[in-house]
Amino acid sequence: MTEKKILELIGKLSIEEKIGEITQIPGGEFINDVEMTGERNTEYTETDLALCGSTLGICNPETIKKIQKKHIENHPHKIPMLFMADIIHGYSTIFPIPLAQGCSFDEALVEKLNQLTAEETAPSGLHITFSPMVDLVRDARWGRVAESYGEDTFLNSRLSAAAVRGYQGEKLTDEGTIGACVKHFAAYGAVEGGREYGVVDISERSLRQDYLPPYKAACDADSAMVMSAFNAVGGDPASGSKFLLNDILRDEWNWKGAVISDWSSVHLMKSHGISTDEAVLSEKAVKARLAIEMCSTCYKNGIKPLLDEGKITMEELDLLVYDVLNLKNKLGLFENPYRFADKDSLEKAVNREETRRIAKESVCQSSVLLKNDGALPLKNKGEKIAFIGPYLENDNILGTWVIGGIDRPNARTVKSVLDSEFPQNEFIYANGCKIYGKEQSREVEFFSEAEDMETNDKLREKLINEAVEAAKDCDTVVMLLGEHVRAGGELAAKAHITLPDIQLELFRRVRRANKNIVTVILNQRPLDICEIAENSKALLDIWFPGTMGAEALVDMLFGKDAPTGRLSMSFPYTVGQCPIYYNTLPTDHSLEYQTHFATGYVDCPNVPFYAFGEGLTYTDFSYGEIELSKSEINMNENLTAKVKITNIGERDGFETVQLYIRDMAASVSRPLKELKGFKKIFVEKGETAEISFEINSEMLKIYDINMNYVAEKGDFRVFIGHDSRVEKYKTFELK
Ligand code: GLC
């Protein structure tokens, strides 16, 4: 449809029809068995349903086609609906959680995984996914760190753009594409204390310097939609923020998509203390140009009174309707309202061998080997190995935000893969315990997952004793421990971030029987893992790895493949350190200049237990000296920083070379280090590769003391190394 036709269509719509277009109604109002990803708090009439412009949560082609057909037949202007859902890290084939994908440090991989997700999703009839989530995260207590690419602005931004490219391809009328909806705009990841739905009150400089760039990267990649966040930023609720949704998104970034609220987040502005009057809340959202209100009825109840009282104009309302119709037009829905919805195409598109192969590879590229005293890889002959833990026979390893209503294959269990891969081996197995013991009853009750909690003391003792016996005369014990799948994502903020007590008890008692332990953890946040790490010969973090997790883990344990991930988020010594992240600002008592009177705690180091960018693999690399092509550049020049790395280990392997820069003196305080480049390269054993990075003034821009985004002259340190703890640097001057 042409722009002109869209505008003509808007001119024909009644006010009720316009309100319908900007109101999203949960899929559960159209059919029963739809997963509700928010609180049902609204009564809808038949007219509401007949005029609603979009719905969410319905994920299968037959239902979508049926609803769409009925909708178009009944709609006075035959305007098709939009169908949206949370397809966060896979549709049928589930890939590692986004925090794990962040550990891949691989833009091409993230783009590929999202392209495969789109290819599986498009034949379902869905048009939009509420992904990527690119909230910068620094506090492991927040459950939704699982959905983010981590604590670094640069890494988040690169992967955010890659994710949108993967979903959307060249254009949204192409097969195998879906529209992206980058979220949660803005800075939901900065909730105080990692508290879910908590307060976000950060400086505009930090908002712009640290939190906004990943969203901007998605918008620059032409993300079809943006979702506003629940939180306020400095007291200004995002879902009604003209500053965020209009001034930044549209005036500054020139982004032209459609903004959708989060679930009831327009209505929930009343809880921010804005007003209990839905018309007032509507007015804020309309003026901010929030085009679709998800699952609440402020627009439904508030728009007409606002028009009657002249508090909003018809032009302002038409802008919202335009954004919705323009999105439908980008997706080609006026010409093809069913888009690619087709049961047979869907069956052919999902769970392809190639997709599963890439899914398995992505687990290895996202898994992080945190410690290895040589215990890994295991030998599959001549060693007696015990596999012990609640994740030995648990296939619930897909991770958070794996939406219901899709008939997808389960992941396999570790035991089933071991049995089929090594039928001749005599592995020893013991579950050891359930995921939870009674100590975590409050958490279990909240997640209502009682079957995963051991309440029988006798059985608890029996299972642990069996595990201890199993460990006794083995050469190696592989512990398979982890968080519960519900302990990540929305409504999973936690004040304690160790593994459940029962698993720590199992680990301690097994270790008393056998100290040769390799520990594998499944988690959706950085954990306080010190005791496990200090008492294991090797520690492998596979996060929640998705459909092919068990196959990939067994390949990594026995060296058929290698873990090559690097931490996208720091692990604290203890929850008391949170939030902790590598690119912190210096203080006047920085460790750099102070010894005794220094920033930090008296009872804990002031650095993380595992740092951003850390990760081992099954070979080693040595770094040569950093070479800069120039010792000074002006604002219009580049310099090249390069380094040689040599694979000095026993195997070919990948190394993720990281470039950090520090601005030594500026009009405002600048971080001790900032990631400004990364390259994941394959180097054969004994070989040397040269890596180079281009550096220019654009990369050095900051929001200066007057909030101007400029590069300031002065000295900069260039670090190139294995991770954020790198110390060797060279200096150049920006003149
Ligand atoms: C939820 C989440 C958001 C999700 C939306 C729709 O409350 O905050 O990430 O996309 O509702 O399910």
- Oligomeric assembly: single chain
Strand segment tally: 29
Bound molecules: alpha-D-glucopyranose
Mean pLDDT across residues: 97
Q: What is the end-to-end distance?
A: 52 Å
Strand content: 15-25%
The biggest beta sheet, please? 8 strands, parallel
Structure annotation, total helices: 20
Q: What percent of residues adopt helix (DSSP H or I)?
A: 25-40%
Rg: 26 Å
By secondary-structure content and strand pairing, the structural class works out as alpha/beta
Instruction: Please mark out the parts with pLDDT under 50 across 5 or more consecutive residues, or reply none.
Output: none
What general form does the structure show? globular
Adjacency order of strands in the biggest sheet: 9-6-5-4-3-2-1-10
Plain-language structure description:
With 735 residues, this protein is α/β, with parallel strands linked by helices. 30% of the residues lie in helices and 18% in strands. It is built from 20 helices and 29 strands. It has an eight-stranded parallel beta sheet. A six-stranded mixed beta sheet has the order 11-18-17-16-12-13, sandwiched between helices. The chain has a five-stranded mixed beta sheet with strand order 21-29-28-23-24. It is globular, with a radius of gyration of 26 Å. The protein starts with a helix and ends with a strand. The relative contact order is 0.11. The mean pLDDT is 97. The chain binds alpha-D-glucopyranose (GLC). Alpha-D-glucopyranose is lined by residues 37-38, 56, 86, 130, 183, 262-263, 490.
